[in-house]
Amino acid sequence: MCLAIPMKIKKISGEFAEVESGKFTRKVNIQMLSGIKPGDYVLVHAGFAIEKVDAEKARETLRFIDEIR
Amino acid sequence: MKYVDEYRNMKLINKLAAGIKSINSGSPINIMEVCGTHTQSFFRFGLDKLLPRNIRLIAGPGCPVCVSSQGYIDTAIALAKRKGVIITTFGDMLRIPGTRSSLERERAEGREVKVVYSPLDSLKIASDNPSAQVIFLAVGFETTIPTVGLSIISAKKEKINNLSFLCALKLIPPAMDHLLKDKRLNLAGFLCPGHVSSIIGARAYEFIAKKYRMPCCISGFEPTDMLEGIYIILKQISEGKPSVANEYARIVKRAGNVKAKKIILKIFKTVDSCWRGLGVIPHSGLAIKDEFSQFDAAKVFNVLRATSYEPRTTKCRCGDVLKGLITPAQCALFSKACIPDNPIGPCMVSQEGACSAYYRYKK
């Protein structure tokens, strides 16, 4: 039930933002986050953006795996 | 999908599987995950087939629907039967067996039970039905709790006075602590839940690594995430250095989501809570604070919060499955009397339940 998916912020209006994933868009509440802007990716759960995706850390994780031998 | 596809890369998956084999000691290792989404991902992506046979991933009490007590479901059903009540709920709750009925059966008999995607949807249903009393079944772990908290804040701001929340919100770290006190459990590490951790932060598990010298790794839900989490736990075991590692750093911070944690503290207080199959676990649940009691369905409708321990009434062994003491297939009812279309135990009900996942992918 803790399923959450990364979606891209399209437009922000007040406490809500329009987010998209592929052709799918929806309106989510962004009150739990601060300093987000269009183009950012956020994790969406039950109609709320619960955290911002950190692009640099995302790359680091992939690099770490690639370096395993 | 960005931030999904990269973590399903076959080359990286194979690399991790090889990495796990190269540091595998060969002795039996039980790692427990406590998130229904982990349970589902693990079987769905066939990760069990990539692990050496001596390494077992056990599905712990990570599905909030599965651990909702029978008393809670009975209370929800009793409320659904009252005149003028509309129950709103996440879809997974519908089929959970209460003592005599389920919400699905009540709905078929004409009670108003509406499935919602977000707790916020309940606000609209309440506004659209001013003569009804709307009750949201607030079930969930730390990931969901701030969404319930913000919905209560919004309801107060919008002066919605025909909406309340029946809380069975539960906290993961106290449940992990409780499990570790059971001497029969033979655990070598915890794969900590990524989305719960996005709220509570990596710091919330540090007492577990310290007090029990138990390796922990927070992990995401894609195949490389879960395999990397297992790899990191095996490394901690082989180096004898238990700590809380964070594989899901693209989402999880050490302090978590501070804003979300403040919302939780504002609306809720810690209480003892009854987990189906495990019994009452001290300080493992949340209830609405008195200053927001107008939104507490337990107070509004004067029903008792279900805190009593419920003894097993059938041969169902979900409690032992949740502790990893047996696999679902070792329960006498599994795939015979108890199947997804006719669940007896809670772990067979939700798609995230250990028995249901086992039934769909392993049978």
Structure description:
The complex is a heterodimer of chains A (69) and B (363). Chain A has a single domain (5-66), classed as SH3 type barrels, CATH 2.30.30. Chain A contains one helix and five strands. With 69 residues, chain A is of the alpha+beta class. Chain B is of the alpha/beta class and 363 residues long. Chain B has a domain at 318-362. In chain B, the strands form two sheets. Chain B has a six-stranded mixed beta sheet, with helices on both faces. The mean pLDDT of chain B is 94. The chains are: A alpha+beta (69), B alpha/beta (363). The A-B interface holds A 1-6, 8, 21-22, 29, 31-34, 41, 43, 45-48, 50-51, 53-55, 57-58, 60-62, 64-66, 68-69 and B 1-4, 6-7, 9, 12, 15-16, 19, 35-37, 63-65, 90, 92, 117-121, 139-141, 143-144, 146-147, 150, 193, 195-196, 198-199, 224-225, 228, 231, 247-252, 257, 259-260, 263, 350, 352.
Helices and strands, with pairings:
The complex is a heterodimer of chains A (69) and B (363).
Chain A: E1 5-13, E2 16-21, E3 24-29, E4 41-45, E5 48-52, H1 55-66
Antiparallel strand pairs in A: 1-2, 1-4, 2-3, 4-5
Chain B: H1 10-23, E1 29-33, H2 36-44, E2 55-59, H3 70-80, E3 85-89, H4 103-108, E4 112-115, H5 121-128, E5 133-140, H6 145-157, E6 163-170, H7 172-180, E7 189-193, H8 194-200, H9 206-211, E8 216-219, H10 223-239, E9 244-246, H11 258-267, E10 268-275, E11 279-288, H12 297-300, H13 318-322, H14 354-362
Parallel strand pairs in B: 1-2, 1-7, 3-4, 3-5, 5-6, 7-8, 8-9
Antiparallel strand pairs in B: 6-11, 10-11
Helix pairs in contact in B: 1-10, 2-14, 6-11
